[in-house]
Amino acid sequence: MPLLSSLTVRRLQRFAVLMGRLGLSLLGMPAVLWAQDLGKLTVAYSSRSIAPIDYFIAEQNGFFKAEGLDVRLVQIRANVAVMATLASEVDVLGSITTAISAAQRGAPIKVLAVTLHRPLFWLVARPEFKNISDLKGKVLGVVSLGGAQHTALRYMLRKGGLNPDTDATTIVAGDVPTQLQSLASNAIQAAALSPPIVIVARDRFKMNVLASVLQEYPTIQNGVAVTEKTLKAQPKAMRALLKARAKASRQFHENPQVPIDVIAKVLQVDKDTARETYLLSKSGFTQNGIVSEREAREYLKGDAERQKLKEPLPVSRLFDFTLQEEVNTELGLR
Description:
By secondary structure, the protein is an alpha/beta fold. Strand 6 (139-142), helix 7 and strand 7 (169-172) form a beta-alpha-beta unit. The protein has a 5-stranded mixed beta sheet, sandwiched between helices. The chain has a 5-stranded mixed beta sheet with strand order 7-6-8-5-9, sandwiched between helices. The protein starts with 5 loop residues before the first helix and ends with a helix. It contains 16 helices and 10 strands. The chain has helices at 6-21, 34-37, 53-60, 63-66, 78-86, 97-104, 148-159, 176-185, 197-204, 228-233, 235-254, 257-266, 271-281, 293-306, 315-318, 322-331; strands at residues 39-45, 69-75, 92-95, 109-116, 122-125, 139-142, 169-172, 190-193, 208-212, 222-227. The radius of gyration is 23 Å and the shape is globular. It has 3 domains: 1-31; 39-118 and 219-331, Periplasmic binding protein-like II (D-Maltodextrin-Binding Protein, domain 2, 3-Layer(aba) Sandwich), CATH 3.40.190; 122-212, Periplasmic binding protein-like II (D-Maltodextrin-Binding Protein, domain 2, 3-Layer(aba) Sandwich).
């Protein structure tokens, strides 16, 4: 005999539906009604590379949904993303270099977390160019003028003996994968590429890797930046986003197979390339989403000098790690 009659089953089903409508479960816990309860956030990142890996891991592993968020990741050129954020068309900036520069010019933006504090760029040139000096008079590509990639490119050219303002022409050439296509077609002759594309350029296209800035200087490249208006209006959503991102960061540092699988899937590379990408890049990422006041102050000073500003903003005007510190305490991150 069946344990429950069909009538009893139907009654239980009707009861479960009623409890769900009341926001309860049969176990007395709140029912999770994802479609109705999710807070929606649009997060912008500038280039398809490992730089926004924490967002990719959080998306692929359901960490955003676990925190009650419906997050849409969109790729937008950094300067356009800043304008879209100021116009309330984007909620969160994942690529924050240009956002910091805008804030120093008066944009009402706050940085809530820093995830990438080392520049993940390698100077890659077509096979016929063996040295940086060979790039004199050539055309080089960047995602956007004045961004982290452009800064790294200028640094490597200068260190190699070239004046980036007079010895080479720099143009906006799309994101990193698009720049590789331009290198292959000879539309540009060199670019500062990030993993995994730098590995693809070296192995598949036989491009030459001429220099790297990974260990040359600190930077503040990726993280979480929002407008002051958004932070004030949605503090719970921002805290939930930071928590999901922090969970992803923990997976990145403690469980290498997780980021390797995500890199392979999202950036569409083979596992060997994904593994080398991870190993090349790991040291560039913070473990707790926070940089020291000294690091932040030095970065702001350098950015102000690049922009020819009279003086940099005080660190406290631009960086607010309060929510990130709360999340770190909750998750036991140091």
